[in-house]
Specification:
Layout: H1 2-18, H2 36-52, H3 56-65, H4 73-84, H5 89-104, H6 110-181
Length: 182
């Protein structure tokens, strides 16, 4: 009896493993039109990538070639990207201000506005770093001038000490000479 129960359990177990559960076949995916917001973000990211590859000279040349009476947000974005490549304080400030305006533009998709916000912060950090470098350079120049002044003071004091030592030695010699003549 026991063997029969074990044999029956084995057959049931094999039957369960042999028949996989039935799942409905997924419906074929229908191609969807690309989301215009994500297409815009993708284009702006490509623009940023291509602008990062430019030298300052190339960016300046592209800026000179661009002219628009009433630029679109995409054109303003491209101009800001080119300005941030110039490596100059005023250009970074202009790029930051343009990105700030794009970030605040409610007509742009949220992801595009976030990208503009990131680039605004990037340009602001460049401005902050440049300001810190300027302040550090000024402080270093002041410290170097103070060091030169202190070194001159030390040399003057050393010269005075030498003069006093020489005077003291000569006074000592005179006393000895006067003491020996008596």
């Amino acid at each position: 009896m026991r063997i029969l129960v074990l044999l029956l359990a084995g057959v049931l177990l094999a039957a369960c493993q042999a028949t996989p559960p039935q799942t409905p076949a997924p419906a074929p995916a229908m191609p969807q039109a690309p989301d215009p917001d994500s297409a815009m973000l993708s284009q702006w990211l490509r623009d940023a990538d291509s602008a990062l590859q430019l030298s300052a000279r190339e960016a300046r040349a592209q800026l000179a070639a661009m002219q628009a009476d009433s630029p679109t947000p995409a054109q303003r974005y491209r101009v800001a990207l080119l300005h941030q490549q110039l490596g100059e304080w005023n250009s970074w400030a202009l790029a930051r201000d343009t990105m700030r305006a794009l970030r605040a533009d409610e007509t742009l998709p949220p992801d595009v506005r976030r990208l503009a916000g990131l680039l605004e912060a990037f340009n602001q950090s460049r401005l902050n770093a440049q300001q810190q470098r300027t302040e550090l350079r000024k402080s270093l120049d002041e410290q170097e001038a103070l060091l030169v002044q202190r070194q001159a003071e030390v040399q003057a004091l050393e010269e005075k000490i030498r003069s006093l030592t020489t005077l003291e030695d000569s006074m000592h010699q005179r006393r000895e000479e006067q003491g020996g003549q008596r």
